[in-house]
Amino acid sequence: MAASFPLPVTQDLSTLRAKLQGLLQFLREALSISSAHTVDFYTESVWKQLVDLPPETVLGVLRRSAAEAEARSPEARLLVEAEMGSGIANFPQIFCETSQKLVSVEAFALAVRYYSVQNLGICTPFEQLLTALRGNQKQRTGENVKPDEFMNLKKSHEVQVMSELISSIADYCGIKQVIDLGSGKGYLSSFLSLKYGLKVYGIDSSNTNTHGAKERNRKLKKHWKVYHTRSKLDGNGLALKMAKERKVQDEIKYKVDIEGICNNSPANQGKMSTSDFLPDFSDSVISNIRTQMENLHVYSHREENLCFENAFSLIDLLPINAVEPTSLQTSKRNMSEANKERRKMISKSNESNIYSPLTSFITADSELHDIIKDLEDCLMVGLHTCGDLAPNTLRIFTSQPEIKGVCSVGCCYHLLSEEFENLHKESTQDKWGFPMCHYLKEERWCCGRNARMSACLALERVAVGQGLPTESLFYRAVLQDIIKECYGITKCDRHVGKIYSKSSSFLDYARKSLKKLGLDESKLPEKVIMDYYEKYKPRMNELEAFNMLKVVLAPCIETLILLDRLCYLKEQENIAWSALVKLFDPVKSPRCYAIIALKKQQ
């Protein structure tokens, strides 16, 4: 590593495993709520099977709990959590021991808050990490360009924050090459290259994405050059204005000095014009003027060569024969040659700081040498890497020596492959998306797709009960009962899709959905369809309350997945430092957690 400043202390493997054990103890009972599918809510009598409370009670407690959590100060929150001590062991009974039904929604809400990422203390503060990475060095700001000029606000926020972190890690490790896995449209890659001068390879499995990224990067470079030129012109205009003001002041000063010299000379006390005596200036006067010229030349360089070609020269004050013509020509020629060399250096620098989009399907066994011919010591990064790509990023990082650091933000948990999900099916796959760490493998832990889907809700960062699509879920659950009882179909591989938003009523929704599923909707009279609707309408609050339970529980599933990845890194002998960091504002970007790690020096 290029730097030797200590990074923030993180929790060790044994501490993380203890927290993982407590979380599993809670999830063994609570996972049935996350695993239930709302499509089967009425056909499978989900509420009756899993909850032993009235829906009004569940809704009231969860809404009250959310409001209290919002209003409670951080200090009060910590006090309550400290009183819990060892975690789940100190909680009141949440589920009935015999029926396994939920019996205390208050204890349920408390346990969910306790096992959130933030409360478990497994997160390293972002600002603390940045400070440690920079050490005594000043922040490298790169080009003064805001990413929201090139992308939407959400992506702008993500790219700006993550690129700042990656740049700091690269400086800390003394690295110039970055590999961006799942680079997609190339926003992060382009920004790292253009703003921070890093050499970036963006790898995506979609050739369409790669082609689009190349075209987008070309346009971005053009836009960037225009922006950069405009910024320079603004700076040059300011410098030119300052130079003109100095010129006026200097003209006055030199006229006063020259007239003073002329008036004090005994031989020239008669009436003479300035042009009469300038050709006969003494060597000392010309030397003095040349000194002033050199001072102005140095000053212009302190202005970082802004508008040097346009800067005012003191030669303009003198008649043609006051200074040897060869000196003036040499000065201009030297200045021109210096500017040419400076432009060549900038051009070469820009050529080395490039972004190269590549197309390749990445697995845990992918060899980067086969994809990138000039692979060197590098960082591997990924912004919202989908499904198995996030865990595979970590596996590639640990196995390939050129990769010195990793910064990965995952997403699409529902697309993760699970080793213990379908044990009855034969599979040749040997590396799975979940679990990764030894402890969960020994436990043969499985979340299931529905639970992983609920983890995508990012619900610890959404106000409970706000914006939940209860009616659309209700429509789909009632439709499922119609399909089961009227068509004799219990399982259907086809999906209804986004028909709800295109429907004017439940009747309209039902007919459109049945048609899309390939079922004869004309065999069902309007009355039959509406009878199902009226039958379940009084029980709509059950679905609303159950969905809210899934919403509240979702962060615990995400915590489990993130802890699994962090423990995996802690188990590797070649890793010097690893942490979980909350990178983004969750309001702007719900998938806000990054796994970051650095290797030991060899």
Describe the structure.
With 602 residues, this protein is an alpha/beta fold. Among the domains are: 13-124 and 462-555, no CATH class; 155-222 and 352-447 and 557-599, Vaccinia Virus protein VP39 (Rossmann fold), CATH 3.40.50. It is 53% helix and 8% strand. It has 21 helices and eight strands. The chain has helices at 13-35, 46-50, 55-71, 74-84, 105-114, 117-120, 126-134, 153-173, 187-196, 207-264, 274-277, 283-302, 325-352, 368-371, 389-399, 438-443, 449-455, 470-487, 506-516, 526-536, 540-571, and strands spanning 123-124, 177-181, 199-204, 355-359, 378-386, 403-411, 575-582, 593-599. An eight-stranded mixed β-sheet has the order 1-7-8-6-5-2-3-4, with helices on both faces. α15 links the parallel β5 (378-386) and β6. The radius of gyration is 34 Å and the shape is globular.
In brief:
The protein has 602 residues and is an alpha/beta fold. It has helices spanning 13-35, 46-50, 55-71, 74-84, 105-114, 117-120, 126-134, 153-173, 187-196, 207-264, 274-277, 283-302, 325-352, 368-371, 389-399, 438-443, 449-455, 470-487, 506-516, 526-536, 540-571, and strands at 123-124, 177-181, 199-204, 355-359, 378-386, 403-411, 575-582, 593-599. The longest helix has 58 residues, at 207-264.
